């Protein structure tokens, strides 16, 4: 009887997710719906997986343990993906150097803790500020002169800037990995699930940063300027908005989130290296596409889906599938729904 009940609730949860995706816009028309939509969809996804395991009579505690690990990893992907989606939403640019900003944030946090002796929270702020400065500098040097250039030229420049920052990082920081000092040692157990303090810190800080970003974009003057520029750059400029300053602010905010992700991931996986941003940067881009690039809740949803999926594949199949699952999901989403889970198809005049 229990397996039948499990499959039944699984089917109901999947049905609710389909309805939620199909009728997303009426749900998000109100302020409460905008904030509650993504967490509710994540809850339905976890519920569906849980009752699928009940139907299959699998070990739920082990599954939930791996899901917790996946959520912490997905939170990091979500923070990096937010930078991609913000920049793309404003200037229609894929900033492939964003993964290297994540790397610079990890190193800034490392030196803040080891050389300056700062507390973790102060080191986090230091890393975010350093990453923001680096992001604005990259925008001014590499992207601003190419505002009117063809998109292919900008794309090649972004790839070149990524490789440049990797090699500069190896020259400045050295190619030998550095060990990030362990910050948190606590371990908690809830219903048989082990929760180490560092993963709790990652999740809590990620949620706070995402809520702060949502408030910033929706209710502040710079956030409204970003939304105006994303809709029509020329009209925004005619209305008195400084487009250059707005684009620089977008790079700064996105880079701050990447810098935060860099130091947060270092407290769980304590080795940092100049090439550490390559694969997480690509996976965060995949997460942004899966959720719907240019849509902030989509980046969050895509990051969490990717993190949980990657961890479950590693746990149940093999670690060799860890990277393949991300790009496999990218191919599937591009074939089924190219605009992403929360995106919508928009006709573009040519």
How would you characterize this protein structure?
The protein is built from 14 helices and four strands. The model has no long low-confidence stretch (mean pLDDT 84). It has 350 residues and is mainly alpha-helical. Helices cover 74% and strands 3% of the residues. The protein has two domains: 1-58; 61-336, ABC transporter involved in vitamin B12 uptake, BtuC (Orthogonal Bundle), CATH 1.10.3470. Helix 4 (60-91) packs antiparallel against helix 11. The strands form two sheets. Strands 1-4 form a two-stranded antiparallel ribbon. A two-stranded antiparallel ribbon has the order 2-3. It has helices at residues 2-22, 24-27, 31-56, 60-91, 98-114, 120-143, 151-173, 197-219, 221-231, 233-238, 243-266, 278-291, 296-316, 324-336; strands spanning 178-179, 187-190, 193-196, 271-272. A hairpin with a 2-residue loop joins strand 2 and strand 3 (193-196).
Distance between the termini: 58 Å
- Helix/strand order, N-terminal first: HHHHHHHEEEHHHHEHHH
CATH class of the largest domain: Mainly Alpha
Number of individual domains: 2
Biggest sheet, spatial arrangement of strands: 1-4
What's the architecture of the largest domain, going by CATH? Orthogonal Bundle
Mean pLDDT across every amino acid position: 84
Helix content range of the residues, please? over 70%
Counted beta strands: 4
Describe the biggest sheet?
2 strands, antiparallel
* Uncertain stretches: none
Rg on CA atoms, Å: 20 Å
Counting helices, strands and paired strands, the structural category is mainly alpha
Task: For this entry, give a set of tags.
350 residues; mainly alpha; ABC transporter involved in vitamin B12 uptake, BtuC; 2 domains; two-stranded antiparallel ribbon; 14 helices; 4 strands; 74% helix; 3% strand
């Amino acid at each position: 009887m229990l397996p039948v009940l499990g499959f039944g609730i699984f089917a109901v949860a999947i049905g609710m997710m389909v309805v939620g995706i199909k009728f997303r816009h009426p749900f998000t028309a109100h302020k409460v719906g905008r904030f509650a939509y993504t967490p509710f969809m994540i809850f339905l996804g976890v519920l569906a997986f849980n009752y699928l395991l009940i139907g299959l009579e699998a070990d739920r505690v082990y599954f939930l343990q791996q899901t917790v690990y996946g959520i912490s990893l997905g939170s990091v992907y979500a923070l990096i993906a937010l930078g991609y989606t913000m920049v793309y939403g404003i200037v229609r640019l894929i900033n492939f150097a964003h993964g290297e900003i994540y790397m610079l944030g990890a190193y800034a946090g490392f030196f803040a803790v080891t050389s300056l002796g700062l507390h973790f929270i102060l080191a986090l702020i230091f890393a975010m500020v350093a990453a923001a400065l680096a992001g604005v500098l990259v925008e001014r040097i590499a992207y601003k002169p190419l505002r009117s250039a063809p998109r292919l030229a900008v794309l090649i420049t972004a790839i070149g800037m990524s490789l440049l920052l990797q090699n500069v990082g190896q020259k400045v920081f050295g190619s030998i990995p550095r060990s990030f000092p362990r910050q948190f040692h606590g371990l908690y157990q809830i219903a048989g699930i082990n929760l180490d303090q560092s993963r709790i810190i990652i999740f809590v800080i990620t949620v706070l940063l995402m809520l702060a970003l949502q408030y910033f974009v929706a209710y502040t003057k710079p956030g409204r300027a970003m939304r105006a520029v994303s809709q029509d750059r020329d009209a925004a400029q005619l209305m008195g908005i400084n487009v250059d300053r707005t684009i620089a602010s977008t790079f700064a905010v996105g880079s701050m989130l990447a810098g935060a992700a860099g130091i947060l991931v270092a407290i769980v996986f304590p080795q940092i290296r100049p090439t550490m941003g390559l694969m997480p940067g690509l996976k965060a881009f995949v997460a942004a596409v899966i959720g719907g690039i240019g849509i902030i809740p989509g980046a969050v949803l895509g990051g969490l889906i990717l993190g949980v999926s990657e961890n479950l594949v590693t746990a149940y199949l093999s670690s060799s599938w860890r990277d393949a699952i991300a790009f496999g999901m990218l191919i599937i989403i591009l074939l089924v729904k190219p605009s992403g889970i929360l995106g919508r198809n928009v006709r573009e005049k040519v």
